[in-house]
Amino acid sequence: MEMKINKIRIRNLFTKDIISTYTNQFWRLISGPISLILIPLFITPEIQGFWYTFSSISALSVFADLGFTTIILQFSAHEFAFLHFSGSLDLSGPEGYRKRMASLFRFVLKWTTSIVLIAFPVIFIVGYILFIQKAGISVWLAPWIIYSIGAAIGFYASVVSSFIQGCDQVSNIQKLSLQSAIVGTLSMFISLMLHFGLYSIAISLLLANLYNLAAILIKYRKFLRTLWKTEPDSTDWKHDILRLLWKYALSWSSGYFIFKIYTPFMFQFHGPIEAGKVGITISLVTAIFSISNTWFSANTPKLNMLVAKREWKNLDKEFRKNMILSLGTYLLGIFALFVAVFVFSGRWQFFDKLKVRFLGLMPLSMLLAGWFLQIIVNGLAIYLRAHKEEPFVIPSVVSGIFIIATTYLSAKYLPPTMFFTGFIASYLYGLPWSFKIFFNKRKEWHL
Fold it and tell me: Whole-model pTM?
């Protein structure tokens, strides 16, 4: 009997959404380290610097998103709480909610198209200005053009997938994301082995995002066709969403400076080789974070639907469970990392050769500690944002300004080992501030 109860508990813990998301993350867990090995083997340290700076500059798409994809997931989840899918993935439920969903979908398409046409040419120009100062255009221009086009397609795909994922489709969307990740990873590996150099990251991104968008449109063609043919209601989504978007815009744009500014700063002050070390080390740490955060990301639509139904006890129970599992998974990841370093250092020549492409123990420890605390802040934010609110605007802006200033000073005047001083210091005030906001808003909204 006890064994049967334990099996039921495990089954409830590892839902299809969690399993699909972790399968996706497991692929990244395998492909990520292989990428970290192949990149230093097949490209020079200088090209490695351009490689990771491509990613950091492209992350300026956060200024195109400005939290829009997260808002859309939340809004579609709140509407879908009263709808359901038929066996053929077509939309069913009360006509009023179907009309609201249709009008939301049309607004999403119009907004996304406008943003892509405006923001991504600007991102391309920013990259052009930065890269032309460091090398001739023959090194980076064509790959940067391909990469920018791929990033624009990826943005469009991410918005559509967020909309659908909010409709309790985490499992299916994660499966499609896994397929596109496999396409991108394999194309990158093949390109590297064919010595395509910087073209490898551009080609892989373009192919992966094209596949993802096409796969979504094919799988959900009935659902999307129904939304397009359904007469929309008169809900003013522009007013409802813009009410939140300006707050998200400040938080998300601040997030770029909190999490993505490091590689460009290191590139500017210490050159592409040190920038490559920063980029590849951040990739390693954020991979551990992403795997750990799966417990929250896979259950975000569920949290939003619980809020829509005002099931506060179930909401708190789900939140506590996800927080414990996320923190535990992260600590397990750190333990595995240090065990690997201890086992292979000095015993495997290839590992020692690879290790010099990464940052040393001090900056790595700062990153690991900071991202551990970020799991807590991220969980608190997901909980509160499920209420269609954004109470973390001011802390995000303050942290963004603080980290820009401290990282600039660190890059200019301190050795690379102290580069992340501002990042870790921001949590000394940011974490207590986040807890205060969380408990105050939770008490206010659950009256």
Answer: 0.70
